[in-house]
Amino acid sequence: MLFKATPLIFTGYAFHVAQRAGLFNIGAEGQLALASLCGGAFAAWLPAGTPAPIALALALGAGAAVGALVALPPALMRARLGVHEVISGIMMNRIAEVLLPFSLATLLGATALRTADVAPGAALLRLDRIFPSLSGSAASLAFPLAIALVVALHFWLARSRAGREITWIGVNPEACRAEGIDVRGRLVLAMLLSGAFAGLGMSVTVLGYKGYFEIGLGSGAGFAGVAVALLGRGHPAGVLAAAIFFGTLEQAGLAINARVPKEAMTVLEAVAIVLVSAAGRFARSAETDTIEPAAPDAKDEPARGSPEVAAPAAGAAEEASS
Fold first, then answer.
1. With b meaning 16 or more CB within 10 Å and e meaning fewer, what string describes 105-138?
2. Which helix (H) or strand (E) holds 12?
């Protein structure tokens, strides 16, 4: 369950970062796929004797850089040309889908549609080495790494000037532009951060699980991250809880596959998203219904028959009779 939840933490918070700026990063699927390919190939290219801290830092940096690079075209098209990032994000997903087998077969010369094994120093330690109770689990140190990075990015968005400006742009870009904030630059920055964070999801499958990249590894996590972000409401604790919830459903689908189709868990995920969305809508409607218009102030509208009303009326009657 922890293994299934970890990539959803990366992609879920990646979507949230873009959403803070008013962007909809639907391209996390392609960003994660190409980052996994390039990060895995780079980690396999490292010398076998590379120290673990250096190898891990280089492999994770390569994955984050490729994820940001894949997110750059949609970011520039939105900031410079006004092209909606959903259209360009879907386009980049399709490009990534074609580039994966082409790069493996033609550029890397792979015959089994997989990269070579990563360098020993670039492999993440399994959690069952630390906690014997997790014996047999595929979860690795990528899980605590995801939590630490989510918390760090959350505080950066809340405390730094650039992070606060990204949030302000998501609320009202025109007001930010009037205040002299570089709206285009912040939009590009938010999208690059989102792509880099999605690319770091390669640490779960490539560095912590398989030890290499193959076609289909980690597929679906980019799209599921959208649901995780919406369900978690953007808070780190909410994203973590939503990712664990979806990870539990995915693992449960494998456990009950002998009796019930595992797609039943996908139906439950959709039902959960619909119920949470409906609950938020009903809550907003209830708040609107409870707001009653303020009663008019007695000082502003004197009652009938009061001296303030009777005096002008008497004066008007005298003028009419004269």
1. eeebebeeebbeebbebbbbebbeeeeeeeeeeb
2. helix 2-20
Q: In this structure, are residues 27 and 86 in contact, taking their beta carbons and an 8 Å threshold?
A: no
Supply the pLDDT for residue 297.
Answer: 53
Specify the higher pLDDT residue, 114 or 318.
114
Q: What one-letter code names the amino acid at 2?
A: L
Predicted TM-score (pTM) of this structure: 0.83
| 186, 172 Cβ separation under 8 angstroms | no
The answer to whether 3 and 214 have CB atoms below 8 angstroms apart is: no
Tokens in use for 219?
Answer: 């597929």
Q: Cα(293)–Cα(20) distance, rounded to whole angstroms?
A: 33
Check whether domain 2-255 has CATH 1.10.150, yes or no? no
Identify the bridge partners of residue 140 per DSSP, sorted by sequence position: 126
Q: Residue 155 in 3-state DSSP?
A: helix
User: Across the strands, what pairs with 114?
Assistant: 214
Q: Mean of the pLDDT values across residues 160-170? A: 94
Domain ranges, ordered by start, for the chain? 2-255
Provide the residue type at 262 as one letter: K
Q: 238 is written with which tokens?
A: 């909410």
The token pair at 289 is 């219904």
Distance between CA 7 and CA 54 in Å, rounded? 23
- Separation of alpha carbons 194 and 36, rounded Å: 15
Closest by CA to 201, choosing from 218, 224, 226, is: 218
